[in-house]
Amino acid sequence: MAVNELTEKECGDLLERTSIGRLGCAHDNQPYVVPIYFAYERDYFYVLSTIGQKIEWMRANPKVCLQVDEIANESEWVSVIVNGHYQELPEPQYTEERARARKLLEKRYRWWQNPLGERQLKSGTDLIVPTFFRIQRVSMTGLRGTAEGKEWK
After folding, report:
1. Backbone torsions φ then ψ of 125, nearest 5 degrees
2. What's the rounded Cα separation, in Å, for the pair 86 and 65?
3. Least crowded by CB within 10 Å, which of 17, 37, 108, 142?
4. CATH code, 2-146
5. Residue 68 in this model has a pLDDT that exceeds 90
């Protein structure tokens, strides 16, 4: 198996066609990794969430990372890691950015269902307020594993 670095364009192509990744954040020297659903556009990842541990931790420490991959098998895969900064998008200060996030996220089937549906079921009759945030990309790297004699498709 050969492992090669991805170009910035190849990293961006993966991020544009993918919608699920793993978000890493840390608080008091404790890491926390959780899957998230996102929409990517240029230097930003837009996310809809509910208030919980990841939001509280990112508010305390806005340095985050996002890992995204596609895995065909053990020797054929692509992985991108993005380091960035968390930025919450509250109303009314970020009305345009929230509209942009919603527009991008709406392109995916049932984009709202997981974060809101699960919390609403657990909370009963209490209304759950969605939280939009974005991650601004600071750096990005990627690798591709390719089986010997094969090309990644």
Report:
1. -90, -10
2. 9
3. 17
4. 2.30.110.10
5. yes
